[in-house]
C-alpha cells in the first residue's frame, strides 16, 4: 500500500516547531527527548513532529539534522530550504503539477485526491492540504538558491573530512591554511593529443604549483 504524503493534525504545533528550530542551536540528534526537554514541546501532537522532520528531509533516518535543517536556520536561505523540503516531501504532488504551490485550495485538494485516492472530504486529505500550506507559508520561491540540492539522506552519507578532498601537498602546507578547490574543464573536441598536453601543462605550471 502506498504511503500518503506527510501530514500533521495540528498546524500551530508545526509553526511553533519551525520557529523554535530557528531560535535553538542545532542538536546532534533531533529526537523526542530533545523536543521535550530542549524545545519544551510535549504532548500528543508533539510526538508526531520528529517523524515529520524526517519525512520533509530536515533530519536523516537516525535523527541527525541535515544541511537543509541548518540552512533553514539561516535567514538568508530559510525560505529556499523550506521550499526544497516542500518539494521533497510532496514529490508526488509536484510530479502532477510542478506549480502546485501556486494552486488554490480547490485545485490542491484535487491533486491530493489524485495522489492518495482518498475522497475530497476525507480528514486525512484535509490534513495533507493543511500541512502542505503551512510548510509553503514559510517557503520562499524567489530566495537565493542554497548550494546543495541533493536528497537529505545523501547529504548525510557524503559528509566527510574536508582534508580528504585536498591535494596531498596542500594538506602539508607549512602556512597552516588548507584550501580545497575544484577545477571544471571544457575540453575542445579534438583528437590532437598535443592540445591536451598543452592544456594540462599550463594547469600544472600556473595552478598546481607550490
Could you please describe the fold and organization of this structure?
With 210 residues, the chain is mainly alpha-helical. 49% of the residues lie in helices and 0% in strands. It contains eleven helices and no strands. The chain has helices at 11-23, 32-38, 49-55, 67-72, 78-89, 91-96, 105-116, 123-137, 152-157, 168-171, 193-206. Helix 7 (105-116) packs across helix 8 (123-137). The longest helix has 15 residues, at 123-137. The model is unreliable at 158-175 (pLDDT under 50).
Q: What are the SSEs and their pairings?
A:
Blueprint: H1 11-23, H2 32-38, H3 49-55, H4 67-72, H5 78-89, H6 91-96, H7 105-116, H8 123-137, H9 152-157, H10 168-171, H11 193-206
Question: What structural class results from the helix and strand content?
Answer: mainly alpha
Q: End-to-end span in angstroms?
A: 59 Å
How big a fraction of the residues is strand? under 5%
Count of domains: 2
General shape: globular
Estimate percent helicity.
40-55%
- The SSE order reads HHHHHHHHHHH
- Radius of gyration based on Cα positions: 23 Å
DSSP summary: helix tally: 11
Give average pLDDT, whole number: 80
Largest sheet: none
Give the low-pLDDT segments: 158-175
Count of distinct strands: 0
